[in-house]
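Q: Got a minute? One more chain.
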Amino acid sequence: MKKKRCQLATLIGLVACALALSSCHDSTKSGALTVDSLKYDSVTAAVDCKLSVTYPVEGEPALLSSVREYLSESLGDLYKGEPGSAKEFTDFYGQCMFDSLAREASAFEMPSGASYVYYGEVKKTAEGEKFVTFETSVYSYLGGAHGSTVFTAATFRKSDGRKFGEDMLKDRYSQAFTEAIKSGLMRYFKVQSEMDLESCLLDIKTYAIPLPQNPPYFTAEGLTFTYQQYEIAPYAAGMPTFTIPFSQARPFLIRAAADLIP
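A: Always. Here it is, folded:
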């Protein structure tokens, strides 16, 4: 879609697209962003590849550019096509991954008829009056005992597209912040003591818990932290995730980030 259209033309275009592609294509408009939801799905005996993308197609230009760059980077940073084409973007990354897995399958056949698997999902997961958050989750199985999942997320300021990451935090080395991280992980693991929490972690002491590799991000409930598989805990622990409510997180946020929350 073009970046500049009158509201009526935009509405007509969105409705027409929704009716024509209702089985796999959904267009919605909320706040400063208009998004398209598209899917890539290709399955053979050796490869199972699926990608679902919620892609911003209209809105404030700086915000559009920033979100699109993040989405592309989260999927490999290879796309060089038209930035406004949601279908081209989705098909490109879906086909890239399918081709990669197909080459792998031709070189190394899976035992017992198993398939190489890639399930990717990019979606908008939270939105406020002043911010919007997108997440990317990719599951892959390339053989072995189990597959693996990689997760990223980012929060953007609607007014100018600024992406907030770890730089949104302040007082990260204060006792209060350390306690907030510790308490969040204790809730995730459902334990009551620091000793029990340490028993859930991989050689990490509760007084020196690292922040996740993925920066914190805003959800509807508050400031959220997500660790990757194996980052601080065994595979069986999943991806430790917890949220600090905005009312408690505000003292740990720089002013520019705090101004985005109610």
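A: Residues 1-30 have pLDDT under 50 and may be disordered.
Q: Perfect, thanks.
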